[in-house]
Each structure stands twice: as C-alpha cells, then as structure tokens.
Design a protein that fits this description.
By secondary structure, the protein is mainly alpha-helical. The protein has 13 helices and two strands. The chain has a two-stranded antiparallel ribbon with strand order 1-2. A hairpin with a 3-residue loop joins strand 1 and strand 2. Helix 4 packs antiparallel against helix 11, helix 5 runs antiparallel to helix 6 and helix 8 packs across helix 9. The protein starts with a helix and ends with a helix. The N terminus is likely disordered.
C-alpha cells in the first residue's frame, strides 16, 4: 500500500509531460492495473536517468526558484502555462464528442486571457463555474478503442505508453505555433515552456517529495502502476 501511495505522488511529480494530479484516496482504493512491460531493459535505465536528472538538476533549480518566487506567483505561472494548452484540450474534447467541455475550454481561454491577465489569474471557474476539461489525444485514442500498448519510460518526460506517446506527438502537432513560426523558434519556445513547467511544478512539490523514501520501495513498479491507474481514471472521466 505504501508503494501505491508513493506512486500517486511520483507520477504527478516525475510525469512532467502529463496533467495527472496525484490523489491519495484513489491510490488507496483502486485495484492494481495490469501493464505490459516488454521493454523493461530500456525503461529501467531511463527511469534511473530521470531520477538522477531530478536529483542533480531539476530539484536544485526548483529549490532555488522556490526561494525567490512566492507561492501565489508559482500558482499563477502554472495557470498561465495551462492556459496555453487550450487548443489541444479543445480539439480533444471535440474529438471525443464532449462538446460542453470544448465550449468551456474556449470560454475559459477567452475569459482567463482577457480578464485574468493571460491566464495568471483564474477567473472563469469562480465567476462562471467553467472548470477545465483536460482531455488529450492519448485519451482520445483510448475512447476509440486503442489499447495502452507496451509501457514506455521517456527521457525527461517520464512514464508513458506507446498509445500515450503517440498522443503526445499529435497533441504537439496541434499547437498553432508549429504553423506560424520557424522550426528553430518552435523548438526554442516549446523547450523553454517545458522546462519552465517542470521547474514550476517541481517547486510546488518540494515538501511532498522530501517524504518519499526513494531507496525503501520498488519505485519503478510503483510509478508504473500509479501511471496506468491515473490514465485509466482520466479516460473514465
């Protein structure tokens, strides 16, 4: 049970490419998910690499960032970065036939951009009750019957599957900047935004992560199990 609770934490912290929030109650209640892992010989070293990147690069940078950036500003940066992902969320809500969710995503973007200082301040939910509908193309593929495929640990991005990795590529292609800017500009902007998101998210989980005893549990298996469970829950919602 301890491993599964830790997994809920680690998936949220190490899975920088996902929008999965760790939920303690769900980690304790949900049954263990089955996952195919034929590429464990590749995944284990990548998992270790990601832990080392976190220990020697991301965590020190996030700690320094946390000392100079107030908590409210960190939350604002997180909301701003989420606001930029509206096209992917809107499109995947449409693909899945969730038109109310698509409408709320469009409304949230307009309201939070205009009245919420480009998304730094959340206005749409407290004023209009419009909640985020975080759908991605990996979930869309699942809705149309695509299986997870083998488990896959991506360098820097963390836990994934073949289906979710394909979804990540499509979501990236949906971003309008791909068609408005040069390749160099797109790579520079996306790289900067990804790093900013990783540092900002990590800085908001420093105290939580301090409690994780990395060497005391099977972290690889626990994170794998936690990731699959979180994705299955996201697809059901």
């Amino acid at each position: 049970m301890k491993e599964r609770i830790l997994a809920a934490i680690l998936v949220g912290v190490l899975g920088w490419s996902t929008h999965i929030e760790p939920t303690w109650a769900q980690a304790q209640e949900e049954p263990e998910a089955q996952v195919s892992d034929p590429w464990e010989g590749f995944n284990q070293p990548m998992f270790t690499l990601n832990l080392k990147l976190d220990e020697y690069v991301l965590r020190p940078v996030a700690t320094a960032y946390d000392t100079v950036m107030p908590d409210g500003a960190q939350r604002g940066v997180g909301r701003f970065l989420k606001n930029l992902g509206v096209v992917e969320r809107f499109a995947n809500n449409v693909f899945q036939g969730k038109l109310p969710g698509a409408g709320q995503e469009a409304g949230r973007f307009l309201v939070n951009t205009v009245l919420g200082c480009a998304g730094f301040i959340e206005v749409a939910e407290p004023v209009f009750g419009w909640k985020e509908s975080p759908e991605d193309f990996g979930q869309t593929l699942a809705i149309y019957g695509a299986a997870n495929g083998p488990y896959l640990v991506l360098p820097f991005y963390g836990p994934s599957t073949v289906r979710d990795t394909a979804g990540l590529v499509v979501d990236s292609a949906l971003n309008p900047m791909n068609y408005l800017l040069s390749t160099v500009e797109v790579v520079a902007i996306k790289g900067g935004l990804t790093l900013t998101n990783a540092v900002n998210s990590r800085s908001m989980n420093l105290d939580l992560f301090e409690n994780v005893e990395r060497s005391a549990v099977d972290l690889y298996g626990a994170v794998q199990d936690g990731y699959i469970q979180r994705r299955e829950q996201a697809i059901k919602e």
